[in-house]
Design a protein that fits this description.
single chain, 300 residues, alpha/beta, Rossmann fold, Alpha-Beta Plaits, 6-stranded mixed beta sheet, 4-stranded antiparallel beta sheet, 14 strands, globular
Length: 300
């Protein structure tokens, strides 16, 4: 399978540990790859180099076999790009800006713009300078996805500023593009967004790639804090005795434990007793880094 996006040993050093260092990964044709990492880890710097806005100190980047710096104009015409910070022309209305982008892309008409406007409940007639962060993000999504001929998408924190309902609609949009065989690179600091949409994830930390893994492996490595309340303290005590590392206070009815890939076993054991309540708290991205890759406490 052909690699549509290739990033080969790319370094951009801004000094004092800032930048990206020897970044190396690829996105196959028809694959959705998540670019996962905390804010400030180097996701946007990498993506801006892919789009030819920044020249790397060393290494090479290509999209569809084209050099990202030398042939940036051709890449811009072919890729559905959603930047982390969109440069709007505030004097325009949202609809004027959509038309402006369509002209830049040399589209014949507005493609799927109206369909996307309705999907995201976008009021595009208002002036951009008066729009909220979420509304501007919807404009960016429309601009990135409105050309039906686009085969490659590069998306930088695409659901930033969207409410939960619109985040779900965005995920539906990505999944639909994925079904059509489109190639997608999507950065995010939200594990759930990557988990629901991506085949693999490249994880960046402090400007360096710590792993490129299949989503199944990452899901297996992520723990959940399970808190189970039983009908009696005797049940809670007995259950706690079956679970390694369980947290239990004498006389209480609640048991807490961190659970990873042994979730099925945990649930079946709890099911032998009378459960009256059940809470699940998934590891934060920071906790996930510490658990899955190790590191200093409190440092991401």
């Amino acid at each position: 399978m052909e690699n549509i996006i290739e990033i080969s040993h790319v370094t951009k050093d801004y000094g004092r540990g800032r930048g990206v260092f020897d970044v190396n990964f690829f996105v196959r044709e028809g694959e959705t790859l998540g670019f996962l990492g905390p804010n400030g880890a180097g996701k946007t710097t990498t993506i801006r180099q892919l789009m030819g806005f920044i020249r790397p100190d060393s290494g090479k980047l290509s999209v569809m076999g084209r050099d990202c710096f030398k042939e940036a104009d051709k890449i811009h015409a072919l890729v559905g790009y959603l930047p982390g910070e969109i440069a709007f022309i505030d004097s325009m209305s949202g609809m004027d800006f959509i038309r402006f982008v369509a002209d830049i892309k040399k589209m014949n008409g507005l493609g799927r713009a109206q369909e996307l406007i309705e999907m995201f409940e976008l009021h595009a007639s208002g002036k951009l300078k008066k729009m909220s962060k979420g509304m501007k993000q919807k404009i960016g999504i429309v601009c990135a996805f409105m050309n039906p001929d686009t085969q490659v998408y590069i998306l930088d924190e695409p659901s930033s500023g969207l409410d939960p309902v619109m985040q779900n609609r965005f995920i539906d949009l990505v999944l639909n593009e994925k079904k059509q065989g489109k190639t997608i690179l999507m950065s995010s600091h939200m594990f759930e967004e990557i988990e629901r949409t991506c085949d693999r994830a490249a994880i960046i930390r402090e400007g360096k790639i710590v792993a490129v893994e299949e989503m199944e492996k990452l899901q297996a490595g992520r723990q959940k804090m399970m808190e189970v309340t039983f009908a009696s303290s005797d049940m809670a005590k007995a259950f706690a005795g079956e679970i390694h590392g369980a947290q239990y206070t004498e006389g209480a009815r609640k048991v807490s434990a961190k659970v990873g890939k042994e979730l099925d076993t945990f649930v079946k054991k709890a099911g032998r007793y009378t459960v009256t309540d059940w809470n699940v708290q998934t590891q934060s991205l920071e906790e996930f880094f510490l658990h899955f890759y190790g590191g200093e406490e409190g440092k991401v």
